[in-house]
Amino acid sequence: MSDALLQTKLFMPPLRHTLVTRPRVTAKLNAGLRGKFTLVSAPAGFGKSTALSTWAGDLQQPVAWLSLDESDNDPVRFWTYMSAALQTLVPSIGDAVSVDAVVNPLATRPLETTIVGLVNSIAATPAPRLQLIVDDYHVIATPQVNETLFFFLDNLPGRLHVTLAGRTDPPWPLARLRARGELTEVRTPDLRFTTEETATFLRDVMGLDLAPDEIAALEERTEGWIAGLQMAALSMRDRDDLAGFINALSGSHRFIMDYLLEEVLNKQPEEIRDFLLQTSILRSLTPDLCNAVTGRDDSERVLATLEQANLFLEPEDDTRRWYRYHRLFADLLVDRQQRTQPAQKQELHRRAEAWYESSGQLGEAMNHAYAAGDVERQIQLLADNVLTMAYQGELTTLVQWLERLPATTGRQQPWYHLSRAWVLVFAGHLEKVEDHVVKAEEALAATPDEFAAAERDYILGQIAALRGYVAGLQGDWPRSYDFTTAALAHMSEAGPVARGWTTLLLAVVLRAFGRLDEADRAFVEADTLSRAADFTPLTVDVLWERSEMQRTQGKLRAALAGSRDVLDLVADYRRQTGRRLAPTGYTYTGIAAVLREWNELDAALENAHEAVTLSKRWGMADAVIRSHIQLAWTLQAAGSPDAAQAAMDEAGEIAAAMSPMYHTYVGGAAAKLHLLQGKLDAVAAWADAAGIRVDDTLEEGPTGHHIHLAHLLVKQQARGRLPSVQPLLRLLTRLEERTTASGAHGELITVLALRALALAGDGREDAALEPLARALEMAAPERFTRTFVDMGPPMRDLLLRALSRGIAGDYVRSLLAACDEPVAPDVLAAAVDPLTERELEILRLLPTSLSTVEMAEQLIVAPSTVRTHIKSIYGKLQVNRRTDAVKRASELQLL
Q1: Distance (Å, rounded) from C-alpha 424 to C-alpha 427?
Q2: Whose CA is closest to 741, among 796, 795, 784, 703?
Q3: Nearest to 682, CA basis, from 693, 692, 671
């Protein structure tokens, strides 16, 4: 299910044709433009939204609007909507938003630092002065939202002015903003109707012809309170004794409201009264939704009638398909509905929940299930959609919903504990998962008659899938395989999202075992299931994991093409839903890996940073850790070892709070970084602590750590610190057998290159060229570069020797050109078989326009002799054409 952005939250309330001109309010709002921030704060019913939309409509500047509601207390949701609102001004600035995960322990830095990218992006935009209006901010109570928004405002670029409207003041140090002249305040006294404005409103808007003393009395009774004035005017329609009615008004605003609403409602036909009461449960109204809730088929006509009668109905979009009741009017309608029709409440909310669920708006569906007090439906919504919401980064919302559920009993308990377990998995709290899995298992066993066979099977499948996932994250691949296959056996009748996710897990486990052909089939099946469910977030995850395997197989071009296809999917998803897919961080991690291998380091760094940004938005530990590791390796290749170590340290901090598997995973990644940095003692200590031994049998499982060990031993050999090369060569033989059998050609290239170095270091340079030639043959079509360059000067020397033997000449030259220490032309020339004096004579004639016959005449030799020498020259220079020979000879300074 897709929980798409509700576009009506981004629409400015449409202007009415009959409005009271309010020059005092407009002047104060205009004056506020000299600062960075305007606060409009007043109780309900004082016309804040109307005043702002009227003012904004007359501005000669781009304006964005955002209306808030209680669900925006989730920081991820809040900043997603903020980004969407700002994108209506400048489409590109939304790309800079990175919302850190709120669920610890991933929020390793203060949450507000994640807004820096948005601030910087706004500052850099060439757009003119921009306006952002945020309405109903009083609904926000979450400290993280308040803190990050104040940080945003405190660092606001000069070209953006923000106006915040609400019933209460935000919990910020407003005095500081006042002292700096950055705050303009529009409060209740500014918004009260004056006598003149009251007269205009009653005459032109409400159509009442009152005497001046009646207007003055009414203004005094309502104290300029616009909502009270409007309801009084509605009550006075068709009354004869207006003076008596006005004199009877007294008491607080609430009592006036209660009295006047009774008057207004009692004047409506019964069918309109019923419609108002039944639809009062809705935050927003559209004809189809109102039909679903009321059981009518003419809600479009009723809504048009209410709007025409000015009965507290306000359009939310320009097409008048979505409306809302005035908030105070809605509150009192709800109160009246509960008092007069209490039996209907639960059913009305259930109908609304069903409509929102079918339209893909999970948040609204959940809110109505909660309002209906339907605990079982809430739990089922959570259980059915926990994967969806986790993929959308809304872990905080999931936690909030789980915490507000009452104690569960009976058939609700297994689903409740499964939902808890999934949230903990995605948040990275693996040590807490098993407790809820056990409780789900016990609750299922305790209620044998509560579940049909298919549902019971599905619950058992989820239990097994959770255990399989946790086992995999802990590096226990055999147990992970057993649990995952058991889960799929139970899920034959489950939905495609659950089966697709579990099949993806099976593919990852098979990949870890080196069973790559089986893994590929599982990836294809998971992709098919995710597309059948039309669930793009899972499709993105599947394709990324498959591209990881393709890189292991040495298929760099296919991996990059697949990743770019994913970005097209993501762009389509964003156009359809208004959301950026946080799991896309995986994709950018994979793109960065390929570009780093190709030595395209600027582009690799750009993608690595984007991977970190998006992975933090999602908040899943695995994605955050992987993106930091790739960033560290890329920074090292780009010549920034300190920054590389900092990125790896951050990955380590997150992993330490997760599980032993994460710690092991990051330990291996850090070992690779230390190999690149020449910190051999650190690598040796890692291998010893991790129990990685040169004589390990290398049974099923990942081979990466043993490849790092082999690389360490090769480096120790180069420094004279390896007593015997034989254990190393035997390890490399076992690694070659494993990677060859599994089809992990990406790793096989590394193993063959290390074997070549080990043999050369043992004085067997001629023997070293055989595995090197095989590695180069496999690597050249896919442009492997850093694999060789990162092996340092010994590999560079071996490549020069390969060049002198005519092995993969053009490819070897590209590798030598990419070395961190470029090879001098004279060294390159020395690697070429020397040309004879006669060949040099002919070489000097090649840049001319002379034909072979003309060269022969000039040198007084036969044309066949010239042709023989030219063929020899081509062979020594590793070229096939005359122009290439001239170019290569120039590079080698032979001309």
Answers
A1: 5
A2: 703
A3: 671
B/e letters for 411-426, b = 16+ CB within 10 Å, e = fewer, are bbbbbbbbbbbbbbbb
Burial of residue 301, with CB atoms counted within 10 A of its CB: 0-12 exposed, 13-18 middle, 19 or more buried: exposed
> What is the sign of the dihedral through the CA atoms of 441, 443, 446 and 452?
negative
Task: Write the CA distances from 443 to 365, 449, 450, 489, 757, integer angstroms.
Answer: 26, 12, 10, 21, 60
pTM equals: 0.61
Is residue 801 within 8 Å of residue 831, measured between CB atoms?
Answer: yes
Distances (CA, A) of 864 to 13, 676, 726, 846, 876: 89, 52, 52, 16, 19
203 touches 177 (CB < 8 A): no
What residues contact residue 881 under an 8 Å CB cut-off, 6+ apart?
A: none
CA distances from residue 169 to 143, 189, 195, 310, 444 in whole angstroms, order as listed: 14, 15, 28, 30, 49
| 195-249 pLDDT per residue, tens | 888 888 888 877 777 888 888 887 776 767 777 777 777 777 667 777 777 776 6
**How far apart, in whole angstroms, are the C-alpha atoms of residue 833 and residue 836?**
9
First to last CA, the chain: 69
- For residues 496 and 683, the answer to whether their CB atoms sit within 8 Å is no
Task: Tell me the per-residue pLDDT of 346-403, one tens digit each, with 9 for 90 and over.
Answer: 999 999 999 988 887 777 888 898 888 888 888 778 777 777 776 666 666 777 777 7
Give how far Cα 202 sits from Cα of 206, 207, 236, 239, 885, Å: 5, 6, 10, 15, 93
Q: Which of 90, 80, 51 has its CA nearest to residue 224? A: 51
Which residue type sits at 33? L
Closest CA to 624 of 591, 661, 662: 662
